[in-house]
Amino acid sequence: MKPFEKRNAFFDQLCNNPDLMWLGQNTNHFDPPPEVRQAVIEAMDSGIYHAYAPPLGFERLRELIRNDLGLPDASVMVTDGGVQGLYGVCSRFCEPGSEFLTTDPSWAWPMAFAKRAGATVVQIPIYDPSVGYKLTIEQLLRHVTPRTKMIYLVDPNNPLGTCHTEEEIKAFTDVARDIGAYFIHDATYFQFADSFTPAYRFYPEKTLMMYSFSKWLGLAGMRLGAVVGAADNIELLADAPPNNLGSNVLSQKAAIAGLEAKSRWFPVIKQRLRRNQQVVFEAVSKIPGLHVPVYPSQANFLVVETLGAGIRPEALVAALQENGIMIRQGSYHTKTFGDRFVKISLTVPEAWADELCRALPAAVEAASRIENPPSLF
């Protein structure tokens, strides 16, 4: 069986397990606002889905995305998930012989897209307490070259959960402007941060913001995201997009309803997330050898180091799967540091987080006896 067939079969098995506790994909498993469900039902009943959506998205949705980011003058291109937006950006702006600069760890797929476009990927290591587990301006200055075409920053960072200050973001964009590079600010998790600064504010001419509905609103399976930037750059993306007939109508109507209800609904979600982060942090702190390097996380997950407990991340993932709990191994994000940690997603029902805490001590013990964990993806 080909590797991608194995990967698909692995996730198909997970998706068809109705009892699985999903603590591994950063998706939001809290119930959405009731307006979201009603919007989908009304869209189905009205038959609006028989027609293609506007190619850049419904105007009301584009307006709400701009407002959510605090960028009223930016242009928005709605995409079939944030991943499609990143694919379009990397394919359009990366060039053979150029350099795509990002952090290590980061999110893996944009690096694959950049390589496919002919760029060389350069990663700056940030899994280090001496730099606060995030990129510093000194590191960036040491790594940029005349060939740097794109700087890609996931902020808050996936998987570490660190978030940059306004001063740091401005300094990064100043560097990008000096060398003429595009600055891709992946803001997939910004709604979970206590404070967030869009890079577009300082460098609108070549900053592209990546936006997702999978995490904060929980529409992962409905596949909806956006690219936000200057109109000239959105025009370049719009001349040959992967989907020129508009994104899913039902998903867009759900997203509109979610954004309109966000100010009332989302603060409660964030409180529940912080509660889950706290109970998991406390449970981890009681187990010798486990350690949470970044707390509180500014995203909807926690990284838990396993090195001190003498167990492999993959072994702990496998042990928890025996309890019907999915978490993610660090190697999904980074080959360099992946043997150090697992990642636990926590926008989930409190009962799931509590069950993880209950199962964790025995799972750590079981993981110590697993020499050859099964293949994970």
Question: What top-tier CATH class of the largest domain fits best?
Answer: Alpha Beta
CATH fold node name of the largest domain: Aspartate Aminotransferase, domain 2
The termini sit apart by 15 Å
Strand count, sense and barrel status of the largest sheet are: 7 strands, mixed
In brief:
The protein has 377 residues and is of the alpha/beta class. It is built from 11 helices and 12 strands. The protein folds into 2 domains: 136 residues, Aspartate Aminotransferase, domain 1 (Alpha-Beta Complex); 228 residues, Type I PLP-dependent aspartate aminotransferase-like (Major domain) (Aspartate Aminotransferase, domain 2, 3-Layer(aba) Sandwich), CATH 3.40.640.
Tags for this entry?
single chain, 377 residues, alpha/beta, Aspartate Aminotransferase, domain 1, Aspartate Aminotransferase, domain 2, 2 domains, seven-stranded mixed β-sheet, three-stranded antiparallel β-sheet, 11 helices, 12 strands, transferase, pyridoxal phosphate binding, Aminotransferase
Give a structural overview.
By secondary structure, the protein is of the alpha/beta class. The chain has two domains: 3-32 and 264-369, Alpha-Beta Complex (Aspartate Aminotransferase, domain 1), CATH 3.90.1150.10; 34-261, Type I PLP-dependent aspartate aminotransferase-like (Major domain) (Aspartate Aminotransferase, domain 2), CATH 3.40.640.10. The chain has helices spanning 3-15, 34-46, 59-69, 82-93, 108-116, 137-143, 166-179, 231-238, 249-285, 313-321, 350-367; strands at 21-22, 75-79, 99-104, 120-125, 148-154, 182-186, 207-212, 225-229, 301-305, 325-326, 328-329, 341-345. The strands form three sheets. The chain has a seven-stranded mixed beta sheet, with helices on both faces. Strands 9-12-11 form a three-stranded antiparallel beta sheet, covered by helices on one side. A two-stranded parallel sheet has the order 1-10. Helix 4 packs parallel to helix 5 (108-116). InterPro entries: Aminotransferase_I/II_large, AspAT/PAT-like, NHTrfase_class1_PyrdxlP-BS, PyrdxlP-dep_Trfase, PyrdxlP-dep_Trfase_major, PyrdxlP-dep_Trfase_small.
